[in-house]
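User: I'm writing a tutorial on reading structure tokens. Could you give me a worked example: one chain, its sequence, then its tokens, then a sentence or two explaining what the tokens reveal?
Assistant: Sure. Here is the example chain.
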Amino acid sequence: MSISPDLLEDYCNSLTGWTESESDGGVVEVSPAGQFHFTANGTLSSRADIVRDVLSGVANFTIEIILKLDTVGVDENHGFLLRAINDTMELLVEMHNSKIKVYDGATFNEVGSNLAPTGSFITWRFEVTGGVAATATVDVYKNGVLVGDNVDCSYASGASGSGPFIQMLGYASTATESHLDRILIGTGLGDFSGISPSASVSPSVSPSASVSPSVSPSASKSPSASVSPSVSPSASKSPSASVSPSVSPSISPSASKSPSASASGSPSLGYSIYSRGDSPTLPTNDNDLEILYTEQEEEDVAEADGVMVGQAGSVQYMIHQFKKFVGDDPYFIVDYQGQTSLAPSSSTVYFQIYNRVSGLWETIDSNDLAGADLPIELSSRIGSPSNYRDADDVVSCRVYQLAL
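And here are its predicted structure tokens:
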């Protein structure tokens, strides 16, 4: 179910509205633009935190953050902490040593196994049923995939006020660092697929029909089926909105979106080329794949409505490639929604972007947890766009999976 971020919608452009607290060299700042940057320098009680009062009296709520852990330590005094108090109970989440843990009032319990690595942005969503502290639970999602179902968070802290409260700890000899890209909080339980941040936030590079710069995390944000046709190796492997639309990202340009559509003949807002195919080896360049999406197929993947474009494969790489005009914004977000009939837990689904400076494909997100035929969402914030745009401000991304 889609809900709105009626309590908080913050894209980390300013700390205005937050109460900041720093000690022993800890710092929270906006750096780079559009990200909250937390550092704690490893002295005795170094920390940096921010708090905002938006949850008072809200029984059931959802929090979504896009977070990158740059450096963390091996215990709770050297990592990232998220607290959310609603005057009845307190959600307490910590991340360190590749682990994400939730407090049940007595113990921090790990969700899954080593789900919180350092080095890449991850979208975490917490759907909290917290009307009664003794029975409070949270569903934990990582990049749109449920990784913790009805996790016990029955902590009645007795604390007044509300949250969220976000903290980076780096005590005694271990310096820590993290970047926060987005914070959404809404009343009720569900995802935020219906919201659409302004184009200025980040032109969505997703192959979704909304080729517009809308960076919204909504269906348009993800290439929905287009972004990753089912990556599964069978005919059914269609890239449906599932994590990997047809395995080959062939970005076929719909006639209207082709460069010829623009009077000047050069790509402009709305330009895209989606293609797909299968191959025994991964292409090293971003040339269009063997099959171009038809105009109808681009329309089919314009929304995450269950209509998908698939790519089959047998002991080959199933690939979907998406080229899209992103303009000259200082950064952008690329997203993909899809699914595959071959479980990512058996064969990892990768999301990559082409670096035009190095001439190499770079992995920006992946999923090795989901089951077969389940929705997958992959996303990443690209903060150095000049490395990825061509002379016409077009970016190339692809989703692929090896068919076993």
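What the tokens reveal: Confidence is low (pLDDT under 50) at residues 196-265. The chain has two domains: 8-187, 219-402.
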